[in-house]
Design a protein that fits this description.
The chain is an alpha+beta fold and 170 residues long. Helices cover 29% and strands 19% of the residues. The protein contains three helices and seven strands. The two termini are 30 Å apart. The N terminus and C terminus are likely disordered.
């Protein structure tokens, strides 16, 4: 693991970082959680509102804030950071997957989440903008819509720690 000039971490190997790295205030991390077997069940009417609503609840409970998210049929991207007061992204992931996993089992979808997740720690402020663009354009790349704003299962917010908008505006 290396620290870039601006202090952001970059994981350069396939192994999970030390848990302390998921508790660094202001460190944006893109996490991707996939459905088991890539089953396209996440935008199913019976669970999608619960999956979306649980993002902020789990983030708040873990001392984190969601910067951007996109719910796709078989995965969800979440750009998240720990608040300045402290928090834990791994606790967010555990809480989110446990709560929504129960909701999906009760909806008759069985075990939905893969056991692990993918993550990428932003290395710079420009990297944050690139990550937000990647997340928001995911449905466009997949052919679900022509423009990111047409996809109803995604959102971005202002960068709380930087004051910059997701589009890169100051």
């Amino acid at each position: 693991m290396e620290l870039e000039d601006d202090g952001f971490l970059c994981r350069r190997h396939p192994h999970r970082l030390d848990p302390a790295k998921y508790r660094l205030p202001g460190q944006p991390v893109l996490v991707t959680i996939c459905s088991a077997g890539q089953r396209p069940v996440l935008v199913d009417e019976c669970v999608r509102e619960e999956l979306i609503g649980a993002l902020d609840v789990a983030a708040d409970s873990a001392g984190c804030e969601v910067m951007a998210w996109c719910l796709m049929p078989e995965h969800v991207h979440v750009l998240i950071q720990v608040r300045t007061e402290g928090g834990d992204i791994l606790r967010f992931l555990h809480g989110y997957k446990a709560w929504t996993g129960r909701v999906m089992r009760e909806a008759g979808l069985g075990r939905v989440w893969e056991r692990s997740f993918w993550d990428r720690h932003a290395r710079s402020r420009d990297d944050i903008v690139a990550i937000v663009s990647y997340v928001m354009h995911n449905p466009v790349r997949r052919g679900f819509c022509k423009r990111p704003e047409e996809w109803p299962f995604a959102d971005y917010r202002r960068f709380a720690s930087t004051g910059a908008a997701a589009s890169g505006e100051a």
